[in-house]
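Researcher: Let's walk through a ligand-bound prediction step by step. First, I give you the protein sequence. Second, the SMILES string for 2-oxoglutaric acid. Third, you return the three-dimensional complex as structure tokens. Ready?
Model: Ready.
Researcher: Here are steps one and two:
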Amino acid sequence: MTPEQVLAHSPKVLTDAQREAYFRDGYLLLERFVPEDWLATLRDLSEHFIDESRSRAVSDDRFDLESDHCATAPRLRRLNQPVAQHPDYWRFASRSCITDLAEDLLGPNVMFHHSKLNFKWSGGGEEVKWHQDIQYWPHTNYSVLTIGVYLEDVDETMGPMGVIPGAHEGELFDLYDGNDCWAGAISEQDLLRVPVEKAVYLQGPAGSVTVHHCRMIHGSKPNAHPARSRPLLLNAFSSADALPVTAYNYPSTHNGELVRGERPRWIHFDPRPCLLPPDWSGGYTSIFALQQGEEQEPQAAAG
Ligand SMILES: O=C(O)CCC(=O)C(=O)O
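Model: Step three, the predicted complex:
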């Protein structure tokens, strides 16, 4: 859907000024957006899965682990596809305030794409280099976004999500390196064309929500805080008239489910081209493993 088509529908949780800001800047930060009861449920789930990760020594299709992860000091880098791992994650993605938020920015027909829970552990949790999402999972148009929820308070030392206002209207970058291998990040050379000095780092108390457009250049620094981790639950949605061009390479029960409205009769094709990612049907690791250049046995995982 185009911004004009979306704005023609009345919003449920945003003001029109907030929606216009999203379309202009390509991101939003909504402080304390998620109610306490939901936050408590999501935090309990995090504890449960962190505990479960203690029994793992290597990453698998559910748990993406930092290299120094161990049972006594778990460092779960990412919980893959939480919606497939517990019904409350799916309830949150499909029937909560964030579904309303997705509807306000994508129009009445909304499709769920995927979810992930990125931890950034204290004292180092890894950097995410500048990149755009849509090259990882191209769609027929760019009415696609990701909603992040901070499950704990996040300050500027903890690797908050960084965005570059307005970058979603600019260039779509090649995420392959000079050897035609997928780097998953914008090259140093190309970054010379990006006003990274204008980056805004989205921080806030627990329950704050970030939204970024699928063409937004974004990334985050390591977590320098000595004691606190930065769990960020990410759910990606599209207008239902934006269909994925490539199969999502992490099989989940909910990828592609309609969470609001109806299946539309017409697909919308944006004339702007999109980069095609590698064929990951044989396996994939994670954005962290890729960007850190880790040698790993590929799992079926993504983005
Ligand atoms: O966890 C973060 O800070 C950013 C994550 C991200 O951009 C991604 O997973 O695509």
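Researcher: And what stands out?
Model: Residues 3-291 form a domain with the Jelly Rolls fold (CATH 2.60.120.620). The chain has one domain: 3-291.
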